[in-house]
Design a protein that fits this description.
The complex is a heterodimer of chains A (115) and B (113). Chain A contains no helices and twelve strands. Helix content of chain A is 0%, strand content 52%. Chain A has strands at 3-5, 10-14, 19-21, 24-26, 33-39, 46-52, 59-61, 64-69, 74-79, 88-95, 103-105, 109-114. In chain A, a hairpin with a 6-residue loop joins β5 and β6. Helices cover 0% and strands 55% of the residues of chain B. In chain B, a hairpin with a 6-residue loop joins β4 and β5. With 113 residues, chain B is mainly β. Chain B contains no helices and eleven strands. Classes of the chains: A mainly beta (115), B mainly beta (113). Chain A binds chain B through residues 33, 37, 42-45, 47, 50, 91, 95, 97, 100-103, 105-108, 110, and chain B through 32, 34, 38, 41-46, 49, 91, 93, 95, 97, 100-102, 104, 106-107, 109.
């Protein structure tokens, strides 16, 4: 069975601090996608990144970076120099692109960045 | 590209009435659409998968007679909450598949009074 675990329910940081959001997944598939989405108070999901299971290179996009490690089944997300506008709920998700296309979401991490 | 819209964005209805939510893929054709429900401060839970021209596949525990899904065209799927009750109040999000990815709509906030 597929599962995504985001153990951190809520994190509070002070502006300009770095913060890492953890994501651990379980799957028996060899081909899969991992995603991170941001959900601000408006509710609309904002796509941040997609990573396929064959690409373990870390990625950096501005203040955002992602660390994908298949050995530990983790796909962690780091925000450098956090800003108040980063306050949102962040979801990690896993999909089976060769089968059902279903997305399995983690429970989300609520990030509060304090000024 | 790959834009998905939902209508309405917010709806309030009285207990016992039915409400329809539309999900449209604006610039692509989607053979498969998905419906999710999100309760406050909780994750997105998949309710059903709908394929154009066929019956929807519901996840375990989701009442198919209460949540009617119609996917009549490659760009439109509808979710009808029948005989809504206050416990059906939630945020409903649809997504449409394009290639190997899903593109999410902005969501519909349903409040049943």
């Amino acid at each position: 069975a597929q599962k995504v675990t985001q153990a951190q329910t809520e994190i509070s940081v002070v502006e300009k601090e770095d913060v890492t959001l953890d994501c651990v997944y379980e799957t028996r598939d060899t081909t899969y996608y991992l995603f991170w989405y941001k959900q601000p108070p408006s509710g609309e999901l904002v796509f941040l990144i997609r990573r396929n299971s064959f690409d373990e290179q870390n990625e950096i996009s501005g203040r955002y970076s992602w660390n994908f490690q298949k050995s530990t089944s983790s796909f962690n997300f780091t925000i450098t120099a956090s800003q108040v506008v980063d306050s949102a709920v962040y979801f990690c998700a896993l999909s089976d692109p060769l089968g059902t296309y279903k997305y399995i979401f983690g429970t989300g991490t609520r990030l509060k960045v304090l000024a | 590209g790959a834009v998905v819209s939902q209508h309405p964005s917010r709806v309030i209805c009285k207990s016992g009435t039915s409400v329809k939510i539309e999900c449209r893929s604006l610039d692509f054709q989607a053979t498969t659409m998905f419906w999710y429900r999100q309760f406050p401060k909780q994750s997105l839970m998949l309710m059903a998968t709908s394929n154009e021209g066929s019956k929807a596949t519901y996840e375990q525990g989701v009442e198919k007679d209460k949540f009617l899904i119609n996917h009549a065209s490659l760009t439109l799927s509808t979710l009808t909450v029948t005989s809504a009750h206050p416990e059906d109040s939630s945020f409903y999000i649809c997504s449409a598949s394009h290639g190997m990815e899903q593109y999410f709509g902005p969501g519909t906030r349903l409040t049943v009074t």
